Amino acid sequence: MYRYDEFDHTLVAERVEQFRDQVARRLSGELSEDEFKPLRLMNGLYLQLHAYMLRVAIPYGTLSSAQLRALGHVARRYDRGYGHFTTRQNIQYNWPKLDEVPDLLADLAEVEMHAIQTSGNCIRNVTADHYAGAAADEIEDPRVYAEIIRQWSTLHPEFSFLPRKFKIAVTGAPNDRAAVRVHDIGLQMRRNEAGEPGFEVIVGGGQGRTPLVGPTIREFLPKRHLLSYLEAIMRVYNLLGRRDNIYKARIKILVKQVGAEEFARLVEEEWRHIKDGALQLPAEELARIEAYFAPPAFEDLPARDSGFEARRFEDPDFARFVRTNLYAHKRPGYAIVNVSLKPEGGVPGDATAEQMEHLADLAARYSFDEIRVSHEQNLVLPHVKLGEVYALWQALRAQGLAAPNIGLVSDIIACPGLDYCNLANARSIPVAQRISTRFGDLKRQHEIGELKVKISGCINACGHHHVGQIGILGVDKKGEEFYQITLGGSADQNTALGDIVGPAFSYDDVVDAVETIVDTYVGLRRPGEQFNETYRRVGLAPFKEKLYAAH
Amino acid sequence: MPLIKNDTLIEDSWVAANDDEPLPLAEAIIVSLERWQASRGELLARNGRLGLRLKSDQSPVLVAEDLEHFDLIALEFPKFKDGRAYSYARLLRERYGYKGELRAVGEVLRDQLIFMHRCGFDAFEVANDEALDAWRQAAREISVWYQPATDRRPWAAHLRHGGAAERRARSA
Amino acid sequence: MMLKVLTANRLRDGEVVYLTATGTWSEWLDESGLAETPEREAELLAAAELALAARLVVDPYLMPVAEVAGRLRPLSQREIIRAKGPSVRADLGKQAIRR
Questions:
Q1: What are the residues facing A91 on neighbouring strands?
Q2: Chains C and B touch (3+ CB pairs under 8 A)
Q3: How many distinct structural domains can be found in chain B?
């Protein structure tokens, strides 16, 4: 993975001191809150319901053991002993003190981490496929480009005061695990007819108030033109994005308003002027970054491991874990191991300092020092020998990190919601906990199979509810918490937004409603049919009937 | 208002012309886009320097053919959050080759000066005289840049390879 | 007439605070000064402006409450959570502190 050189170290160190000075000027009164707010946001610091909240960047969801250990240290030293992993592969701390944040950031800088541009009207953390560099279906590791984009977008002088926030996602595999079609810019690696890799460029996707699946504005962009093309898109957006209404200021509104074809024309026209200019990355720089993402020193192993197979046969708990939490690795004899942060009845995406520290040790021992954060609020150990999965599993179990539920109904994505967030209308975490407990029986979960439930506490959709197979949106109805349910959403390459099933359910009734939906699906499905397939076949009617039958 | 240019505080010798009044009898005047469009002939016939002030929804593309007539262009930041003028500045410098004074006016805060400077602004209308020390400090806060901009400061991608090679050659 | 209190977040650490009748800031809702008239509301807001300028607090606003069995209770779920702590972590926030 990428390692800082003197330039990277200097930048984060200078940024820490710049922010330290800004905090001092705020506390002395030289800066008003209005003047300070955009500065603290551009360093990831929000003011939330109970306290400040700091969002630390985890670039394209990749962490070293040392970094994960440091995140645990930050939780202990500056916070209340835990952190929350988000749907943009970042981590959030809910209780930092303003006057301690500069020291917190200085500690992070020591391990090559920062909170730069994790908020504000600027380009945010670039996310990528959490199986990058490990999955068999990959064309190339997208993180090389995520890193290139990260650097180019950091403290970009022209694009730090955009109409609104800007989110970019990159995927290197045709199987889209980065939800590229619901981002402001999505980059899907493709090969052209000559077999050369490049990017399909998708602009104007997003969730929130106006969910939209992003259209493709360019079918194929050669890699060498990546930065200049992105700069053209950003310039068009900076100039034409709406500034009069924050609810209509995202690029998706602009693309929808002028149409994808016209938007593409505007970008191409701007790009014409700059495509052969200063933004071409020197070949040596590309090679330098690529080298950091070279595969680790894999051993030559047979595809099957007899020890692994034996354990799987003998131990039904282990077999169940393998069924849901392992994913095929491109190297024979290795596996991608998913670490669930959704224990039964737990807070989705939260990890204690102790868990982080233990997991850091496990990554050092079993996964070439590397951990990933998925946008589904779980962690990943990307390169584990099959022969070591059993020992790893036992160690994970001791830490409460071995829930065998990846992709199942209890693997719920939930935003922090009204328990933490200033923007929320309703709580999301307790709804997730209650659903998780309702479906606590693992046998039942495995029988149900894949079922993606996503919960947002407000229309901003940080819980990605629009792309949940079952999506739940918390709303405020006359001061009471109600939940609107959608069905049929999907975040993969067949991106789709869910359909509202009917009137919202109360806090007391929503979990029963979810169970009714799940049971209806199970009752109607054909063998092997996944939730969305069944839903597309039978439509809303059977679900509505069961949900809204006269009581 | 105080003006920072060339790392120093200077007197602003320019006079703003109001849209519906006769042009001021000053050597250097600044007009709005509307005034430029309405009184072009009169303005070109004048002796003295001419400046143009653009609002944040007025792109310099509207005057791209006329830049030779302006010794100064002032770009407005009505609120510091309105970042359109960063792009306007780059277009003026890099696309249209504008060489005159490019002035940031409006809500120009010390923490944005470093970005403005990189985008080609060379004069800044600031809130008060004490701003000079703050500006000098702000200008020094970040020394590493990850992308090319108007100022042609070498970006990290170049410094890492070309820069290193140069240093090696010099110390040999 | 609606009962209101003035609440804000403390600048230094973000803690939720309430303006008391004596013009200090308390972490506890029950210690809030009450406003029952528009004039008193204006007074609370003016005091908040001073605290804002003095860099004690940020984002002050008036918030409706009810008096229930001698204690103050917010009317909205949001303010209830804000006064107590996250509903999903009884060990965190004000609710975890014994007084």
A1: A56, A85
A2: no
A3: 2
